[in-house]
Hints:
The structure holds 2 protein chains of 2 kinds. By secondary structure, chain A is an alpha+beta fold. Chain A has helices spanning about 5-10, 20-35, 35-45, 55-65, 85-95, 105-115, 120-130, 245-250, 250-260, 265-280, 290-320, 325-350, 370-375, 380, 385-395, and strands at about 135-140, 155-160, 160-170, 180-185, 195-205, 210-215, 220-235, 235-240, 280, 285. Helices cover about 45% and strands about 15% of the residues of chain A. In chain A, helix 6 (about 105-115) runs antiparallel to helix 7 (about 120-130), helix 9 (about 250-260) packs parallel to helix 12 and helix 10 (about 265-280) runs antiparallel to helix 11 (about 290-320). The radius of gyration of chain A is 23 Å and the shape is globular. The termini of chain A are far apart. Chain B is about 50% helix and about 15% strand. Chain B is built from 12 helices and 9 strands. In chain B, strands 2-3-7-6 form a 4-stranded antiparallel beta sheet, with helices on one face. Chain B has a 3-stranded mixed beta sheet with strand order 1-4-5, with helices on one face. Chain B is globular and about 80 Å long. Chains A and B meet through helix 11, helix 12 and helix 15 of A and helix 7, strand 9, helix 8, helix 9 and helix 12 of B.
Amino acid sequence: MRNEDEILALEMLIQLNSKQSKLKDQLQEYFAGLISPELKAELSNPKYFEGGGPEFKQAMRTMGADGWIGLSWKKELGGKELSPMEQYIFVETVMRTGFPFPFLTTESVGPMIAEYGSDWAKDEIATKILQGELIFGIGYSEPNSGTDLASLQTKAIKENDGYLINGQKMWTSLANFSDYIWLAARTDFEVKNHKGISMFIVPTTNPGFSLSAINTLGDVRTNATFYEDIKVPDSHLVGNLNEGWSLITSQLNLERLALVNHGPVEELYKNVLALAQKTKINNDQFLIDLSWVKQNFAEIHSGIEALKLICWKQTWIMESGQLNMAEASVAKVYGSEFFIEAYRLLMEIMGELSLLKNDSELNVLNARLERMYRTASILTFGGGTNEVQRDIIAMAGLFMPRTR
Amino acid sequence: MDFSELDYQAKVRDSLNKILTDKCSQDELKNFDDGFKHDDALLSLLAENGYLGLGINEKFGGSGEDLYDLGILFERLGYFAAPLSLTGCLVDVAQTIQKFSEAEKHRSILKSIVKGEIYTSAILEPNNQDPENPITKAKFNGDKILINGVKYLSEIASVAKSILVSVSSDEGVLLVLIDKDKVKLTPLASTANSPIFKVEINDVTLDQSSIIHEKGRGLEALRYLLQINMVMRSYIALGVAEKMTALIASYTSEREQFGRVIGTFQAVSHRAADCFIELECLRLVNQQASVNLNTNHDCENDALISKIWAGNACHKISYSAQHLHGGTGVDKDYVLWRYCLLAKECELINGSASQNIDRLGTNISSNQ
Lengths: 404, 368
C-alpha cells in the first residue's frame, strides 16, 4: 500500500511545469523581437547560413547585453546557471526560430574557459563571450582522426614561455568568421593517446593560421584549417597540461542532446501540416484529405513524441546530476536517424514542390525542407558516430561484451 | 517535469517479480501450453496480496486510482508470460465502471474484482474495424432492452461472472453487463493459446439497470475503455519486448562461434542495440499515455501512439530475437517461443500499428 505521503504525492508530470512553460513563453517572445526582417534576410543568404554577417553579430551583442548568453555557466562566472531542463527549453526555442546560435562557443567552450582558463583567458575571453563579442571554431577532427579522435596528431611543443603549434584540422566550422579556434593538440607523445592532449586558444589572426573552404552537400560551409609555427603564450593553455581529454568529453552528453532536440523537426512538421490543410489539390479537395498524407503525418507525429520523451527524460536525469550513458546514446541514434526519415516523409507530402530551392518561384516554406534533407546526414556520423553509440548501448544498456 | 516513480511503485514491481519468478517458471508455464491457459491459483495469490487493486480507488479496497500502477502489473505479467488474461476484467470492466458508473450495484463489482472474482468484456467483433460503432444491437422495449449480436476475443469468459458488452441502440452506444449464462460461448484456439471466446448473444433481454453508465455517456465510456485497453495492452507488450531483449543480451553474451562470443560481433550487438532503442521508446510513450489518462480520460492520440509503438516493437524485437538465437530461439525447450507468440497477439488485438497510424492521421488532419 502507498504510505500517506505517497497518497498525497503529486503524480508524475510528463510535461513542462508552470515555471518551465513560462520560460518558454518568455523566450518565444524575446526571439520574436530579436529576429528582425533584416536578420531574417541575411540568414537566408547562403553566405551567412551559419551566421557571421553584420546583423548576426549585432543580434549576438544584443543577446549578450540582455543576459541570454551563458545559460549553463555558474553564477560566480557571470552566467545564469540554468538547470539542464531550462537549457533544453532554450535550445529548443532558438532552434525553432532557425537562428544559428553558436552553442559550442557560448555553452561548451565558454564555461570551460571561464572555469579552467588563465587569468588572461578569464578576463579577456570569457567576458567577451558573455558579451556576444567572440565566436570560436572547434578544432578537434583531423584528416586521419575522426571517430578515433584521441589519435589526433596536431602538436604543441613547449618553447620558453609558450607553445609552438603545428598541424591540420578538418571540419572546423565557423572558422571563416571566428575569432579563435578551440584547439586540441598533442603535448605528450610518450603516453597513451588520450592522456597526451591539451587544449589551447588559438587566434585566427595569427599569420601562421590559414584555411580553405569545404563546401558541403547541404550548402553548409565548413573548413580545413592549417597551423604553421603558431606561437601562443602559456596563458593560452586551458586546464592542466595533458588533461585536455576530460575537457573535450565533459559536456558531450549535453552537446549530443542539443543535436537531437525535438524543436526544429516539430516546427517543420507543424508548418507542413498547416500548409497541407490549406493547399487545394485536384480542384475539389485539400492535400491533407489524401489517406497516405495523413499516414505520413501520423508516422512523424508518433516519432516526434518518442524523441521528445527521450530528450525530456534524459534532461530530467541530468537535473538530478546523474547520467545514463545508454540512454544518452539512445537519444543520439534514434534522433539522428529519425530526422532523416521525418524529412523524407514530409518531402513526400509536398511532393515535387519540396525540390524547389529558396530562390525559385513556387518554393514552399522558404525551401526549408529542401535544405534540411541535405543537412540531415551530418548527424548520424557527427557528434559521435552512431556505430560507436550502438556499441555503448549494447555495453551500458544491455551489459553485452565489448565489440571488436 | 517529473518522470520519477514513487517508492511504492518500485516496491510493487519488486514484489511482483518475486511472486512471478516463482509461479511462472518454465515448469509451471508448461502446464498451460495446452488446454485452458488460466492460472486460478496465481490469480488468488495476486488477489491476496492486493495486486488486483492496482489502479482502483481505496474505498473499494484498491491502492488508488493511478493507471501507472496498473501498467506495472501488466508489464510484469507480460515479462513473465503469466498464464493470466486480465485486460477484460481489470481494465475494461473495472476501470470503466470506476470512471463512469454511479449505481451502487455496479460500483460494488470493483470490490469483488479486487478480491479475485472474475468479470470480463466482449467488445470486439469479427469483421468490424470500428469498435466505436458496434454491429451488436440493442432495442429498447419498455424498461427492458433486447440484445442481439456476435462478439469475439472475450478473455476467460467461461469463468467470468458477467460480461461487459458494447452495443448500438437508438440512444447511441451503450455498455451493458450481461450474465454469462445468458450467452453462448465458444472457445477460440489462437496463436498464443490465450483463453479467448466467441460470444453469441441471441435475443437476450435485460433490465435497463444493466447499462453501467449514465444516459448519454455510452460513447464516451466506450472510447475511454478502448483507450485504456490499448495502453494496458501496450504495457503487456513492453514486458514481452523487455524479456525478449534481455534474452538476446544474455544469449549472445554466452554463445560462442569462431572462437569468440557472438555478442562481440558488431552486426550482432548493433541489432541488439536497436531492440533496446525500440524498447525505450515504447516505455516512454506508455508512461506518457498512462499519466495523461490519469487526469484526462480522453487522450486518444497518446493511446494510439502507445499501441503503434507496441505493435512495431513487438514485431521487430520478436524477429530480431529469433534471428539472433538461431535454432535455439524456436526450440520449445527454450523460453523465447512463448514470447514471440504473445508478441504477435499484443501487436494485433485492439488496433494494429497500420490501423492506428490511419486513425492518428485522421485525428491530426482535423486538428484533434
